[in-house]
Write a structure and sequence with these properties.
Layout: H1 2-5, E1 9-16, E2 20-27, E3 43-44, H2 50-62, H3 91-95, E4 110-111, H4 118-126, H5 143-147, H6 149-157, H7 161-170, E5 179-180, E6 194-195, E7 198-199, E8 204-205, H8 208-211, E9 213-215, H9 217-228, E10 232-233, E11 236-237, H10 241-247, H11 276-279, E12 286-291, E13 297-304, E14 309-316, H12 321-338, H13 363-367, E15 369-372, E16 377-382, E17 388-395, E18 405-416, E19 422-424, E20 427-437, E21 440-448, E22 455-464, H14 473-478, E23 483-485, E24 501-505, E25 514-518, E26 524-527, E27 534-537, E28 548-553, E29 556-561, E30 564-568, E31 578-583, E32 591-596, E33 602-607, E34 611-615, E35 621-626, E36 630-633, E37 639-645, E38 651-656
Antiparallel strand pairs: 1-2, 1-14, 3-9, 4-8, 5-9, 6-7, 10-11, 12-13, 13-14, 15-16, 15-22, 16-17, 17-18, 18-19, 19-20, 20-21, 21-22, 23-24, 23-30, 24-25, 25-26, 26-27, 27-28, 28-29, 29-30, 31-38, 32-37, 33-36, 33-38, 34-35, 34-37
Helix pairs in contact: 2-6, 2-7
C-alpha cells in the first residue's frame, strides 16, 4: 500500500474488548529526517472525527439536554435558511445525513493555519441557502450537518464543542494523543503529509465536529473498545448500551434510495452499519472512514461488534479512506479466519465475464441521455452494435468563447449481459445499469470495493432532462461572461491551486438548464427556469451542491455560490505602466487587476500585499507569493490576471514597467 499509493506513513491497530492485540507503523512520519512513526504519532482523523461528534450528542441525549427528534433550531435559535423547511431539520437528521442541507462549505474548511470563525461562516452562508429536498427524504453525505453540532453543544451546555469532547471523551478514555488542531502542533508529534515528495504545511480542518481531530491508532483503539464493550471500557462507562445500539440502527430503511449501497448504509455517525466487506462473509460490521482534501490523510475505523474485534488504519500522503478500508478488511478478515469465526480468508473476485445477451427492444433508447451527480455530468451514447459508450463532460480551460464544456469517453465500451447490466469484456466486474425510481431514472454502477472480494453498487448519476423551454435573456447573457472569486484566503489549501474562475454553460440537448463550472471543478447542473436571479439545485441525491445567486453590485452582477463570492471578469481594471494604488475594502476581499504582456517579460512588483497570485489568460497559475515579492508575466502571454490580498482597509502599491 505504501508503494501503490506513494504514501509516506501507515499505522494500524487490531483491537478486542480488552486490549490492543497488535499495533504497527510503517513508512516515515518525517521523510527528511528518516523518522518512523511511533504509537504516539498523530494522524488527521478527517471525517472519522464525526464519531466523536455523535458520541458527544448521545451523551447529551442521555443527560436529557437533547432530543434527537427535536428540530435543531429549537436548540440553536440563530440557525436559519432562505428555505422555510429548515425548521423541520432534526438533530437526528444531522447525524444520519438526511437533513437535505447543500453539503460542504469548502471555503476556509482546510487551511494552513487555524481559523476560529468557520462555524460562524457556515451559519452565515446557510442563512442565504436552500435545501435540496424535504428534510428526511433521503440520506446524502453532508459535512455541514456535523459542523452544526459545534453550535448545538455550547447551546445546551455552555461549554465549547472541543472542550466538551476533551472532558467527556478524550480525558476519561486516556486518549492523551487526541486533540483538535486549534494551534500548530510541535514538530515530530504528527505524521507529515507530502505532495510529490514535498512536505506540506500542517492541515487545519476548521470543521471540528465534521473532520477536525487528530489522533493515533492506539487512542482510537479506546473508542473501538468502548463500542465493543457496548459503551464501556473496563469499569468505565462512556455511553449506555442503548445509545450504542441506536448509533448502529440503519437510518436509511424508510428513506428514498434508488439502490441500497453497502458502503453508505448510514447509522448515526457511521458511514455504514452493514459494512459490505464483512457482510460478504456473514459478519456484521460498522465503519467510519475519512479523507482530508488534497489527499493528505485517509483513515478507517472498522468494528465487528458481534465478533469482539476492531481495526484502526491511518495513513498519510495519497493514502485515502478506500485504501484504509482495503487494509482494515484484510486485517480483520485474517483475524476472523485465524480464530475460526469465518471458515477461510476470502480471495478477491475473479474477473469472470458474464454471458452476453441480446439487448431488449427499446432499452437503449429508453436509457440514452444525460445523467448528473454533484461532481460529474455523464452521457450514455448507444452504438449501432448495441453497446454503450459513457461520455463525461469536463471544463475546457482554453475556451474563452463558446461552450466551456467538452465531452470525452469515460472508461471502456459496455456491452449488454445476461444479468441485465452493461459491462466491458476487459473489466467485467465494473458494470452499469439504469433503474427507475422516484419518477426519474438513475445510472447505477456496481464494482468491487475494499479488499476486492465483494461487489457494491451505488448511484452514479440522475437522469437530467430539459425544461421544455429556453434560457431567459438574462441567463443567455451570462453564458458569455466569467467571474472571479474574491473571498477565498491565501491560507486555504485550495489557493492558489484551484482555478479562480466561475463559468456557466448550456448543456447540449438539455434546454433550459445550466452547467456551473465552479473554480475549475467538474460541471454542476442547476435549474435557472424559475428566476432571473437564482439557479436552484435539482439533484436531491447529490452530495455537495449549492444554488447560484445573482447579486447586483456597483460594478455589475456578482455571483454567490455557497459562501464563495465572485466578481465579473469584464469589470477587472487594467493596470497601466507605473505605480498604482489598489485599495482593499472593509470586507477584506481580494482585488483583481489585469496586466498586458509585452515583447519581453514584465517584472511586476508589489508593496503592502499579504499574498498574490498571477494567472495567464486561461487562468493557469504563473506564480504566487507574499509580501515584497515580484511577479513575472512572460512575454507574449496576452492578458495576465493578478489576484491581490491585503490588510482590511489598507492598500497595495503595484508597479508595472
Amino acid at each position: 500500500m505504501l508503494s501503490q499509493n506513494n504514501a509516506s506513513a501507515i499505522a494500524i491497530a487490531l483491537v478486542n474488548r480488552d486490549r490492543v492485540i497488535w499495533s504497527e507503523t510503517f513508512g516515515f512520519a518525517d521523510q527528511e529526517k528518516g523518522v518512523a512513526p511511533t504509537g504516539s504519532t498523530m494522524f488527521s482523523m478527517a471525517s472519522a472525527s464525526k464519531i466523536f461528534a455523535t458520541v458527544a450528542v448521545m451523551k447529551l441525549v442521555e443527560k436529557r439536554l437533547v432530543d434527537l427528534d427535536m428540530p435543531f433550531v429549537s436548540y440553536v435559535k440563530s440557525f436559519s435558511m432562505a428555505d422555510p423547511r429548515y425548521r423541520d431539520i432534526t438533530v437526528r437528521m444531522l447525524l444520519n445525513h438526511s437533513s437535505s442541507l447543500p453539503g460542504t462549505d469548502y471555503r476556509n474548511v482546510q487551511t494552513t493555519s487555524p481559523r476560529t470563525d468557520y462555524l460562524d461562516q457556515v451559519l452565515a452562508s446557510l442563512a442565504h441557502e436552500r435545501l435540496k429536498a424535504v428534510p428526511g427524504y433521503t440520506n446524502v453525505y453532508c459535512n455541514d450537518g456535523f459542523t452544526l453540532i459545534e453550535a448545538l453543544v455550547p447551546a445546551v451546555t455552555g461549554t465549547s464543542y472541543a472542550q466538551f469532547v476533551q472532558d467527556e471523551i478524550f480525558t476519561p478514555l486516556g486518549m492523551n494523543h487526541s486533540r483538535f488542531a486549534l494551534e500548530p502542533f510541535a514538530d515530530g508529534t504528527f505524521a507529515k503529509a507530502y505532495s510529490n515528495g514535498i512536505p506540506q504545511p500542517q492541515d487545519f480542518l476548521n470543521a471540528l465536529a465534521s473532520g477536525g481531530a487528530y489522533s493515533t491508532p492506539s487512542d482510537i483503539a479506546q473508542i473501538a473498545r468502548m463500542f465493543l464493550g457496548r459503551g464501556t471500557v473496563g469499569n468505565l462507562r462512556i455511553l449506555s448500551s442503548n445509545s450504542i445500539a441506536a448509533m448502529a440502527d440503519d437510518q436509511t430503511i424508510n428513506n428514498f434510495h434508488p439502490v441500497r449501497s453497502g458502503m453508505m448504509t448510514f447509522g448515526l455517525g457511521w458511514d455504514t452499519v452493514a459494512q459490505p466487506g464483512l457482510r460478504a462473509e456473514g459478519v456484521t460490521g460498522w465503519s467510519k472512514g475519512g479523507d482530508t482534501e488534497m489527499g493528505h490523510y485517509g483513515v478507517d475505523l472498522l468494528i465487528a461488534p458481534d465478533e469482539g474485534l476492531a481495526v484502526v488504519v491511518m495513513g498519510a500522503s495519497g493514502f485515502d479512506s478506500g485504501s484504509a478500508t482495503a487494509v482494515a478488511e484484510r486485517v480483520l478478515l485474517r483475524a476472523l479466519a485465524e480464530n475460526g469465526r469465518i471458515s477461510r480468508f476470502p480471495k478477491p473476485l475473479a474477473k469472470i465475464r458474464p454471458a452476453s445477451a441480446p439487448v431488449p427492444d427499446g432499452l437503449l433508447a429508453s436509457i440514452a441521455g444525460v445523467y448528473a451527480t454533484d461532481a460529474n455530468l455523464f452521457r450514455l451514447d448507444p452504438q449501432s452494435d448495441g453497446s454503450l459508450v459513457l461520455m463525461r463532460a469536463a471544463a475546457n480551460a482554453e475556451a474563452s468563447t463558446g461552450s466551456p464544456l467538452t465531452w470525452s469517453q469515460f472508461g471502456l465500451i459496455f456491452s449488454y449481459r445476461a444479468d441485465g447490466t452493461f459491462a466491458a469484456d476487459s473489466n467485467p466486474l465494473d458494470s452499469l445499469r439504469v433503474v427507475s425510481a422516484g419518477g426519474t431514472q438513475f445510472l447505477i454502477r456496481r464494482k468491487p470495493d475494499g479488499y476486492g472480494h465483494y461487489l457494491d453498487e451505488s448511484e452514479f448519476g440522475q437522469r437530467v432532462t430539459g425544461t421544455g423551454g429556453t434560457l431567459s435573456g438574462a441567463w443567455q447573457e451570462r453564458l458569455k461572461n466569467q467571474w472571479l472569486v474574491v473571498n477565498d484566503i491565501p491560507e486555504s489549501v485550495y489557493w492558489p491551486r484551484s482555478e479562480p474562475r466561475l463559468r456557466i454553460a448550456e448543456i447540449p440537448g438539455i434546454p433550459g438548464r445550466i452547467a456551473l463550472l465552479p473554480r475549475g471543478a467538474t460541471p454542476m447542473i442547476l435549474d435557472p427556469s424559475g428566476s432571473n436571479l437564482l439557479a436552484e439545485m435539482m439533484l436531491p441525491t447529490g452530495r455537495d451542491i449549492d444554488g447560484l445567486d445573482v447579486m447586483m453590485k456597483s460594478d455589475g452582477e456578482w455571483l454567490r455560490h455557497g459562501s464563495y463570492l465572485h466578481r465579473p471578469l469584464s469589470m477587472v481594471p487594467l493596470l497601466s505602466s507605473g505605480t498604482t494604488t489598489v485599495p482593499i475594502g472593509a470586507e477584506g476581499c481580494a482585488e483583481w487587476r489585469s496586466i498586458a504582456s509585452g515583447s519581453g517579460p514584465k517584472m511586476v512588483s508589489m508593496s503592502g500585499a499579504r499574498a498574490w497570485g498571477l494567472y495567464g489568460p486561461n487562468f493557469t497559475l504563473l506564480g504566487s507569493g507574499g509580501a515584497g515579492d515580484t511577479a513575472t508575466l512572460p512575454a507574449g502571454t496576452g492578458l495576465g490576471y493578478l489576484q491581490l490580498y491585503g490588510a482590511i482597509g489598507g492598500s497595495i502599491s503595484v508597479t508595472v514597467p
